[in-house]
Amino acid sequence: MQDITSTMKTNSRAHVAMLATPGMGHLIPLAELAKRLAARHGATTTLFTFASTASATQRAFLASLPPAITPRTLPPVDLSDLPSGTLNETLMSVECARSVPALRDALTDLKRTTWLVAFVTDLFGVDSFDAARGARVERRWLFFPGNLHALTLILHLPELAASIPSEFRDLAEPVRLLGCVPIPGPDVILPLQDRSSPAYSLMIHLAERFLDVDAILVNSFEAVEPEVAMVLQQPELGRPPVYPIGPLILTTDRGGGANNGDTGPQPPPRTACLEWLDRQPAKSVIFVSFGSGGALPAEQMRELALGLELSGQRFLWVVRSPSDDGSLSGNYYDSESEKEPFTYLPDGFIERTKSVGLVVPSWAPQAEVLAHESTGGS
Fold this sequence. Notes:
By secondary structure, this protein is of the alpha/beta class. Helix content is 36%, strand content 15%. It has helices at 2-10, 24-41, 56-63, 88-98, 100-113, 129-134, 148-155, 157-163, 198-210, 226-232, 272-278, 298-311, 329-333, 349-352, 366-371; strands at 14-19, 44-49, 69-73, 115-122, 139-144, 215-218, 242-244, 285-288, 314-319, 357-361, 375-377. Keywords: Glycosyltransferase, Transferase.
């Protein structure tokens, strides 16, 4: 990590530009990385996001960041030509590619007003390196928000695609990669399960572009993945150096301040769901959340609501608007739909369950909820 941080140590006002592709799971760890650069190296950051994900949840999160981090939204781009049901991976990559001209101009402006030392983006933003190169940003780093096992799979995708003619789901033997646990074919990530799909070609494209960076920063750490960490930290010709820098997670202390050692404004007081959990008995609450892609069909959403009500079980439910076509793309990519998700719940559900349950729209601080003493399961 010395090569990456040496620039930060020479000037307290070094500046880093970052691009977070859609999803709080991408935005939060990048913001935490920016906080660490500020706290440990005095660096400032411009954190770019897409206009398509400018939800109330995201806006509140960005507004809570310390002064060293400046949020900036890229101009919207037209995605209406993409067919309904397009996978998230494709949506993010296309939006990124179409945002390159605007991002290049923004980075060029930053070079005029700051000492811009590096550009960082996550795995679905790799085409934005064209903007960084066009703006002549010297260092281009990839941030991988997943684990080292997943990174290893993606780094090997081009050779796997060439050597495995069948679908992964049809493999008789698991995929074996050095340092990793064997991966049964049906467990390989969804975008790789259909070689004829645009998402499959996209993942190969991303994997190839992973090699076109100066370093890969991974939201993991050696103690949790020791074997694969040892493999990836060995120099390999043609592969950029890999640095496990995690865990980068959003944490708050009991008073609501960020537990990261930063100075300046802190995030807002503890969210309503954490305050509600404070009032519940220990190990009594079921946490119901399907992540950023939690888009149930409307009928399943209603059945889940009725099941929770009939159970009498205490619950905390993160509700998103339904997706009747079965696609996960709608709610993952548009984290807050135009229509209030509560309107899809059974009539009177919230009122009837208010003594035992809490329903929150779109997003909750998952790490804090799962760590709370009142949470008994999820």
